[in-house]
Amino acid sequence: MVSPSSLFLILLFLSIPFSECNLTTDYYKNSCPQLENIIRETVTSKYISVPAAAAGTLRLFFHDCMVGGCDASVLISSNPFTKAERDADINLALPGDAFDVIVRAKTALELSCPGIVSCADILALATRNFVSMAGGPVYTVMLGRKDSLESNISSVEGNIPRANTTMDEIIRMFESKNFTVGEMVALSGAHTIGFSHCKEFAYRLFGYSRSTPTDPSYHPKFSAALKTLCANYKNDSDMAAFNDPMTPSKFDNMYYQNLKRGMGLLESDNGLLRHPRTNHFVDLYAFNQTAFSNDFARAIEKLSLSGIKTGNQGEVRRKCDAFNTFQT
């Protein structure tokens, strides 16, 4: 009998371009048999020393996949001739530890099996392992992606939601990439771990409107605590708050429960609760941890296949932050 997860993968592959069907779970079985061990050791070491790297790497993966597909284009550093995605303002706060763990894994893999494993596959695997270590679901990662041959700062705007993007705009953004509303809400659950800088939501605390300085959607005690935490945010841009203040390092459904308590940190978070096309998913996931875990796993599996490059559409970079051939 076919299992639900196997059936999902079968249906998923029927709906994706042929090039993406070239991916397999054992793509590196013969060419780099130590891949999984190296990724596991690298990620575990980073997670032990910097637990926040889990949320950072998940965010890095999302920012990569949403702009042109999961092709490691976000890892490219700018050069004197071209500004890369990494320098877009929405990507400037991507944490260094997330980039660092990919660099460390790539370095180890180049010593074990040089020129074989793409940075895009490393990022996909590292993200899965971090999610699992934080208590999230274990999901399937297909392998065989190639790294992009381009990365342009101009490609970013309009493809990644901002903290104040309206829910209608976010829905349209995801639908343009063939994601359903439910899948978008499930992926938003990634905010169950990690933090956001005060500057991203300070307007909800100190300048919401002339008559109401603080967004009334916040629970009063929550907004009071945030005001104290972020009081000096204009002078200290590193000030931040946990997206989920209740279980900030645990990948669970508390994020959705917090939304119903008036503890949605970002305006885009709060929008999930208030929009008629998304609020019933919030209710479901707040009540049912299993439903959230299963739906998140399916949604991120789908995301991981978005816009991938195979064959001569890409390359296997020697260094994750630079193309193999210098581009002007």
From TrEMBL:
Protein's cellular compartments: Secreted
Catalytic activity, as annotated: 2 a phenolic donor + H2O2 = 2 a phenolic radical donor + 2 H2O
Family label: Belongs to the peroxidase family. Classical plant (class III) peroxidase subfamily.
GO terms for cellular component: extracellular region
Magnesium in keyword set: no
Cofactors, names only: Ca(2+); heme b
Keywords: Calcium, Disulfide bond, Heme, Hydrogen peroxide, Iron, Metal-binding, Oxidoreductase, Peroxidase, Secreted, Signal
The keyword Phosphoprotein is annotated on this UniProt entry: no
Residues spanning the signal sequence: 1-21
A Gene Ontology biological process term: hydrogen peroxide catabolic process
Protein name in the entry: Peroxidase
Entry superkingdom: Eukaryota
EC number(s) from the headed UniProt entry: 1.11.1.7
Pfam families, sorted: peroxidase (PF00141)
Principal subcellular localization: secreted
Lineage: Eukaryota, Viridiplantae, Streptophyta, Embryophyta, Tracheophyta
Entries under CDD domains matching the protein: secretory_peroxidase
